[in-house]
Design goal:
Number of helices: 14
CATH class: Mainly Alpha
Helix content: over 70%
CATH topology: MetI-like fold
Radius of gyration: 23 Å
Oligomer: single chain
Shape: globular
Order of helices and strands: HHHHHHHHHHHHHH
CATH architecture: Orthogonal Bundle
Number of strands: 0
Distance between the termini: 15 Å
Strand content: under 5%
Structural class: mainly alpha
């Protein structure tokens, strides 16, 4: 998108009526019909699952039903966990760990801005990060347990690693992709280097930074569950592990679906915020 189009989207008063309508559609997001189509696949999936579990598996082996219960049984287990408050308790525990780790991982934003802006800083720090980045967060779990024990800090450390690197890489990319003409124009207008960095470069890189937040939170959520499976006494990951030990496949599936729904809601929430705060970034509306 051109600089003129970006400026027009940022300043609605400069738009024609047709362009104002287009921006309004971007802010609102997809219509209700489009939203229904998005979830049609889920309905088909659960319908096929119900048929297979309730009618196909019993004909093959009755014991298979206990390994893959139908959605109706999973819903009953979910309701029981909700009524008892256990599901909400474990969800809030996992969410708290994710939020705390994300707060720590936000150090990647100023660090990424500096690395993207200064070649010296990038050359100094990039080799270390490029060596650590390919190591999966799960691989750090044994070391994290030795360092922090079975504790929230151990789980937060694993989540931090999952969020930090995607956020750092996307921030660096966003800064490097800022058009030089914008920077040069700000300098010609007398802006200081600090003002250029904060008010021009950072704002121009925000859409890419938001993408990094979305990717990082997704990776962090997966890392959280892995950490809780082996190093926690609460949380959705622990709920799944505990259900496995007592052969409660329905509760395992409740935990798994809860993780998926939570991840979906977090991502959709970030998309909504991006549409409101960054209407010029069409990528955030997809």
């Amino acid at each position: 998108m051109s600089d003129t189009a970006n400026a027009q989207l940022a300043d609605p008063s400069a738009l024609t009526p047709a362009e104002e309508a287009a921006v309004a559609r971007i802010r609102r997001g997809p219509g209700w019909l489009s939203g229904m189509v998005r979830y049609l696949g889920l309905l088909v999936f659960f319908g096929v699952w119900q048929i297979i579990s309730a009618f196909v598996l019993p004909r093959i082996d009755a014991n298979l039903v206990s390994l893959m219960p139908p959605p109706t049984e999973v819903v009953k287990a979910a309701i029981a966990l909700l009524v008892s408050g256990e599901l909400l308790k474990h969800f809030l525990t996992s969410l708290q760990r994710e939020v705390i780790a994300f707060t720590y991982a936000c150090i990647a934003i100023p660090l990424g801005v500096l690395m993207g802006w200064s070649k010296t800083v990038q050359n100094l720090m990039e080799p270390v990060f490029e060596m650590l980045r390919p190591i999966p967060p799960i691989a750090w779990i044994p070391l994290a347990i030795l360092w922090f024990g079975i504790s929230d800090l151990q789980n937060q450390f694993i989540i931090f690693l999952g969020i930090f690197f995607p956020l750092l890489i996307n921030t660096i990319t966003g800064v490097k992709n800022v058009e030089y003409n914008i920077v040069r124009a700000a300098r010609c207008l007398g802006a200081s280097e600090r003002a250029v960095l904060v008010k021009v470069v950072f704002r121009a890189a925000l859409p890419q930074i938001v993408t990094g937040i979305r990717v990082g939170l997704g990776v962090g959520w997966m890392a959280l569950v892995a950490a809780e499976l082996v190093g926690a006494t609460s949380g959705l990951g622990w709920l799944i592990s505990d259900a496995r030990s007592v052969l409660r496949t329905d509760i395992i599936l409740v935990g798994m679906i809860s993780i998926g729904v939570a991840g979906l809601l977090i991502d959709q929430g970030l998309r909504w915020v991006a549409r409101k705060l960054l209407p010029w970034s069409l990528a955030m509306t997809k």
